[in-house]
Design goal:
The chain has 110 residues and is mainly α. The protein has five helices and no strands. The protein has one domain.
Length: 110
């Protein structure tokens, strides 16, 4: 499940993990290209949610502060799966139920 917010929020909804740890986890999962994406300026003009001004690094909309839509329609199916797996890893869940968790992930990352 991908929520309408930043990558950071989707991986760490409680906001308790340092940004560097989230970035390292994304790189380990093979999502370094996601950290380099530029915010969609056309989308920002149409959608007030994207235009919210935030102080500091969050205001750039880059890296872990890249904003996602409901369901993550700007992500591939594999990227969505990896973000959800990263969320489970970061939470250190004792039990994780996976159904075809890597079905859309490339063979090298899998």
């Amino acid at each position: 499940m991908i929520f309408r917010d930043t990558i950071k929020f989707n991986i760490d909804p409680t906001g308790t993990v340092p940004d560097e740890e989230i970035e390292d986890l994304l790189r380990t999962a093979g999502l370094e290209d996601l950290l380099k994406r530029e915010p969609d300026r056309l989308k920002q003009k149409k959608d007030r949610w994207f235009m919210q001004e935030i102080d500091g690094d969050e205001g750039t909309g880059k890296g872990i502060y890249y904003k996602l839509n409901d369901g993550g329609d700007c992500l591939s199916a594999g990227e969505k799966q990896l973000i959800c797996i990263c969320r489970a890893i970061l939470r250190k869940n004792k039990i994780v139920v996976l159904d075809e968790a890597t079905a859309n992930i490339d063979i090298v990352t899998e």
